[in-house]
Amino acid sequence: MSPGRETPRRKTGLQAPLIGKLIRRSGLSRCAREAAAGDALAVVELCEALDSGDQGMVSLAREALSALPVAGQEICCSQVISRENRPLADLCREQGYAPRDPQGRALFCLLSGQYDALSSSADTADLLARSYRPCGTVAGNSMGSHRTAACCAGGL
Questions:
Q1: Cα 52 from Cα 70, distance rounded (Å)
Q2: Overall pTM surpassing 0.90 (yes/no)
């Protein structure tokens, strides 16, 4: 093949990832609008995008997740509890998001690294025991990975 014929293929090959990123970012912008309107699945998708590694997507997701209504904030907190997503935990902490119920709040504080909030509650151990029980295996696995840190932080 002549060098002239290979050049367009190379350009097309190099452009495909760029087009894919643009499509994903466009979809994420749509998710941001839907999340602001109260779509729970869109909030979950934004939470997952926050841990994607694509800085453009992360930036879009952070901006959208920082302006959620209360119901969306609760979904973010439940995602921190059910999945290990450190960027989401950090965002929730920065924005002051926390579950409304005391049991969920205790577990959320543990999993998001807010140990000071845990130690300020007199009945922390009881709240954690009650909140850990109904969360099932997924939160149990997340909780297991944080036990050492929690013990070091507050002697739980």
A1: 24
A2: no
